[in-house]
Amino acid sequence: MSAALATLDLVSALLLLAMLAVALANLATAPRLGGADPPGDAAPLVSLLVPARDEAVNLRAHLPSLLASDYPRLEILVLDDRSGDETASVAEDFARRHPCRLRVIRGAALPEGWIGKNWACHQLAGRARGGVLLFCDADVAAGPRAVARSVALLRRMHAGAMTALPRHRWGSWAEAAAVPLIAQLPVAATLPLALVPRAAAPSLSMANGQWLAFTRQAYDRIGGHASVRGQVLEDVGLGRAAKAAGVRLAAAVATEDLSVRMYHGWPEVRRGFAKNLYALLGGRPAPFLAGCVIFLLTAVYPLIAAFRPTPLALAALAMLIAVRTAAALLFRHRWTTVLLHPIGAVLSLRIAAASFRTRGTVRWRGRTVSAGGIAPGAEAAAATAESRPSWRSFDSGSIGSAPDSIGRADACVRVREGGLRAVVAAISFNRPGSPGSDPWTGPRRWRDRPDFHERISGAGWQTRTKWWCWWTSTTARWGRRPSCRRTNAGCCTARSACSC
Predict the structure, then answer these.
(1) In this structure, are 236 and 94 located in the same domain?
(2) Domain boundary residue among 263, 288, 311?
(3) Is 213 helix (H, G, I), strand (E, B) or coil?
(4) Are 43 and 151 in contact (CB under 8 A)?
(5) What is the tens place of the pLDDT at every residue in 303-337?
(6) Full-model pTM
């Protein structure tokens, strides 16, 4: 046992030593966007392209920063990708005030085989007039010189494509713990950014869709977004396509000119990274599991091994702290992100498990996306599933928002999604004396419904689900109903059914 632990200590220490070397190299040599001089009078026309779906809040907050750019020859195109909120009206309001700089495009229907963002970017590129196409996410805030410095970096590096890494903002502890660990630490500790424009290998490509620019010639040469139409990680695909086509690609740290808040709160962090992580780690079980093993050895094991204070274990922990500190300095994170590393590691493992379980398939912005693109028939299936809210989507403030048509068996079937807590939440409605339109005759008869076993059928679930639904229903009649706040009360059909 001691020999096996010593081997794990050694492997962990060696991996972290290599990561520390890359992180320190990036800290010293990574190109900075702020170091580029602005272009002169012969500046090319730049088309700043912003795909937007349900981005009304972000457009209100960040579109003014794009319009305030000091770049002289700039057009901004915002494509409303059939949003369900006020995205179009917000963008059109800005366009009326800035008619010479901003245009708003209404997106066409999503064709089969395309990811929504890729289709939006493809339409934007087709309507753009500029010699430089600069794709920017709606949640990015840009400084006045960001566009000019991006064009200058293209020229200085003699590159056909460039990408920039912004400073991340967050508003919750879950974002501060998970986002730096998943989104930026792998770049800081495994990819020497100074080698990206010099090496021809696609494995040394780097592309970040939050801020990604191409010359028109380079974009057409690699086939544009049509070449990655079904890929969730379209930016990674475009970077590799650029390297494969011989297009010089530059990457820079842009913490002075760009900032972004990717997700708002833990639910968005979980769903957003679960969508990307499986594809990022190869899109197949073997490379995904290999990546998880490396993560365990470098981000989790040193924390556990430190309780055995051997020299190698302590050295691994010290190098892990040094790697996190170097990444925080590179991307201008607060030191609290280093202290939150243990929590971030736990959250990352949970996200990885969710991504592996679903193979990267999630419901995102009203569409179903997966690591392999849009799944056949997934739109209709996901739309049907979304019409029946899961207990996870409710909180104590949403009692009564579930449709009355949810039956008791429909609620109990959520055991497969949320475990026994879903059942505990499910029995909160239609107890004796509570209103509701459930067709069941009463709490003692619901489990006798003929189609109950069909609804909860599945290996190992039928008996346990029936028993637990019966037990929780019985205890509810005894007055031991759990509180709505603890169970989320996702299946209540009326406010009077749950007194929170």
Answers:
(1) yes
(2) 263
(3) strand
(4) yes
(5) 999 898 889 999 999 999 999 999 999 999 888 99
(6) 0.72
